[in-house]
Request: fold
Amino acid sequence: MLGASCLRRAPRTAALLDGVSVGALVLMAGLTCQPGQTAIMDVPSAVLAVVGAILLLKLSVNPTWLILLGAASGVLTKVVR
Reply:
């Protein structure tokens, strides 16, 4: 079986692998942004998205806590309104 290192040695297959990698990253970015545009509809959801992104990316908080934070803020927002 051919490993990735073997395929990387040939210039044509290395270029092919680079192209596939970039295409996969663009697809994932597009699929991430599209639901975000429909989910962020008001100020509380925008604030929650920004706070969640900061906690996840800068402080490396466990995503389970972010899910619980989102659920708690949803309940709190519903109660306040």
